[in-house]
Amino acid sequence: TGFKSDFEPRTCPEKGEVPEEILDGVRPPLLRARIEYLRQLISSASPTSHTVTNSHPHLNWAREQGLADYQRTLRIEVTLAMLAAGTADNAQAMLEPLHLLSHNGATGHRELEYLYCAAKAHQTQGRLHESARLYNRYAFVAMQCLREEAQLPTRILKHADKISAQRDDVGTRLPARYRRAYSFIVDNLERPDLSVCEVADEIGVTERALQSTFKRFLGLSPSEVIRRQRMERIRAELMEHPDGSNASLLGVANRWGVQHRSTLTNGWRKQFHEAPTEILKG
């Protein structure tokens, strides 16, 4: 049910229909309903067909079940079928609920789908100025999505390199056996129940031996290492999003195993000599 670059609809071949024998072999009712719906949609997506209506039963079913995201998917699919069938007015009516969502903050790929369909519908209706405006918005959002996706691997690699460098720097100062203990700590920082006793058991030494070795080679106890590493990671994450709130501050702390605000505040002051809320002020 796609479109040519000049906005002209192309006819869907009848070969796209799902054979009855395949449908008969599908047992899960939800999947079967989805396939049956797609069969009907394919057969209706033709300039000679006028069977696509605004009251599509599968869309009604999704609405009754409260499946908001799936309703959105269905509206996009039915809109494309309507445009292929040349019923632009019906397509515009099908898109109308998504118009409100777009104005209320839908972004990224979700907004792209709506903008594409809306631009096509307006163009088919001869509303060229509005179509051009929507298509310009579509192109702008598409470039934003591409830019964000292109930057994502770099961000991930930088974060991984930073963590790896921190781990290697500390690890080289410990005897081989105790490097495993440090690696275990770093790999489990997000666990609130991480304990010094568990770390000692992991490498087969007593808690006292672990404490003594860490103090001797790092100048820190295992508990202090856990605290410092957690604070570093919380701070690094917050610096990437400095416009957060106090609620997001505690949320980041929770992700790194710090469950209480007092623990966060005390640990942060010991390490950075300021209140954690200072980072939110830039």
UniProtKB/TrEMBL annotation:
Gene Ontology terms: biological process = regulation of DNA-templated transcription
Supply the PANTHER family for this chain: HTH-TYPE DNA-BINDING TRANSCRIPTIONAL ACTIVATOR EUTR, HTH-TYPE TRANSCRIPTIONAL ACTIVATOR RHAS-RELATED
Origin superkingdom: Eukaryota
What region holds the HTH araC/xylS-type domain?
Answer: 179-282
Q: This chain belongs to which protein, by name?
A: Regulatory protein hrpB, putative
Q: What are this entry's molecular-function GO terms? A: cis-regulatory region sequence-specific DNA binding; DNA-binding transcription factor activity
Q: Which Pfam families match?
A: HTH_18
Instruction: Fetch the InterPro entries from UniProt.
Output: AraC_XylS_family_regulators (IPR050204), Homeodomain-like_sf (IPR009057), HTH_AraC (IPR018060)
Q: Which UniProt keywords apply?
A: DNA-binding, Transcription, Transcription regulation
